[in-house]
């Protein structure tokens, strides 16, 4: 058993992470996994969780938390009329399909390859968002039609599920490259997070069922103790992030999102050292 001071420090860290994750969920339409996964990794290491299942447990637990967080953020944005429901309706199969595939791929894909690819992608996207004339970068004047749109949704679900995020990072970039306003992209991403997290909960429970080395109160690769601690905080704070998003201009929101992506990229590059 770790000393009581370390346990208390861990609880405080998780509470702070929950607040940050909830605010980011509302501000950028993301599920907060980019914040929670590294915190969970340190928390489960302190608890003595086997390294063979630790990263899977972090990803699975993060995705379980994303469901209520994204739902709360989605409700806040929907009330403001900012969500593109036509996109979500067309992705109701595509995004969950990619998310389910991620629960199979994660068991075989080399972790360092996935981390390196994501670090490079987020670095490039972050630099794009910070570039003042990035609003002129376009792949098209509107979102592509099916089957291209279906494929993009599947890819967003797949990549997001692999690293335990709610899809906002990728969907925000995708929609803005196709001439959609940043506010609409952020709002729609909160709905994408729900489409990703729900099927991955089932997949991660199935994938980790009966695995040795998991901590108490875990079902497969989901630790319910961490889930129950973080969810109330994220749901309380998410509307504050959504309110802040609508108080900013498109340019301000783009800059903040770019800085956030560069931070994620740096974390992944550091993990490869």
Automatic annotation (TrEMBL):
Superkingdom classification of source: Bacteria
Keywords for the protein's UniProt record, in alphabetical order: Cell membrane, Membrane, Transmembrane, Transmembrane helix
Listed transmembrane segments: 12-41, 53-71, 91-108, 114-131, 143-165, 185-209, 221-241, 253-272
Pfam families the record matches: TauE
Presence of keyword Membrane: yes
Assigned GO CC terms: plasma membrane
Entry membrane topology: Multi-pass membrane protein
InterPro entries: TM_pro_TauE-like (IPR002781)
UniProt key word Membrane: yes
Localization terms from the record: Cell membrane; Membrane
UniProt similarity note: Belongs to the 4-toluene sulfonate uptake permease (TSUP) (TC 2.A.102) family.
Protein name stated in the entry: Probable membrane transporter protein
Organism: Martelella mediterranea
